[in-house]
Amino acid sequence: MQHRGVLLALLALLALLALTSAEAKKKDKVRKGGPGSECEEWSWGPCTPSSKDCGVGFREGACGAQAQRIRCRVPCNWKKEFGADCKYKFESWGSCDGGTGTKTRQGTLKKARYNAQCQETIRVTKPCTPKTKAKAKAKKGKGKD
Fold first, then answer.
1. Does one domain contain both 124 and 90?
2. Percent of the chain that is helix, strand, coil (3-state, to 5)
3. Which of 13, 19, 121, 135 has its CA 20 to 30 A from that of 128?
4. pTM for the full model?
5. Statement to judge: residues 73 and 87 lie in one domain
6. Per-residue model confidence as pLDDT tens for the chain (145 residues)
7. How many CB atoms lie within 10 A of CB 85?
8. What is the rounded CA–CA span in Å between residue 55 and residue 73?
9. Is residue 43 domain-shared with residue 69, that is, in the same domain?
10. Whether residue 68 is found in the same domain as residue 91
């Protein structure tokens, strides 16, 4: 009776390993171009959303005479100035510039996905927001009737 339980556990483990291996091969197929593919250096274009300017879309890649189209997703909060495939590490926001009413910070390139052409450093700005504690306190007390 115990042998049957061990045998079932072993079969379940083998099925899980086979499934994991199949998934790894599927991912490798997308990266390298599939079985029998001579190409190693794929060049990928930007992720183009299917509708509007963010969400699910497609990325086209080419290697020699071969071409592929894979699904991708553009986050809806991405910064259009530097693209969704360029990942940056940002410093803290600087102090507010009274003349322009904005504050800035600098980002250093951390990772360029899909061979994207990214700037090494970028500078971003946003409007200064006045900190008013009176508004925050007023909102807290509204629902206590």
1. yes
2. 30, 30, 40
3. 121
4. 0.50
5. no
6. 566 776 666 666 556 556 555 554 444 444 445 444 577 888 888 888 888 778 899 999 988 888 999 998 887 776 566 777 888 999 999 999 989 999 999 999 999 888 888 899 999 899 998 765 555 555 555 555 4
7. 21
8. 5
9. yes
10. no
| Residues, the chain | 145
CATH code at 60?
A: 2.20.60.10
Phi, psi of 60 (to 5 degrees): -105, 140
Q: Report if residue 101 sits inside a domain.
A: yes
- For residue 124, what is the enclosing H or E element? strand 121-127
Rounded CA-CA distance 26/34 in Å is 8
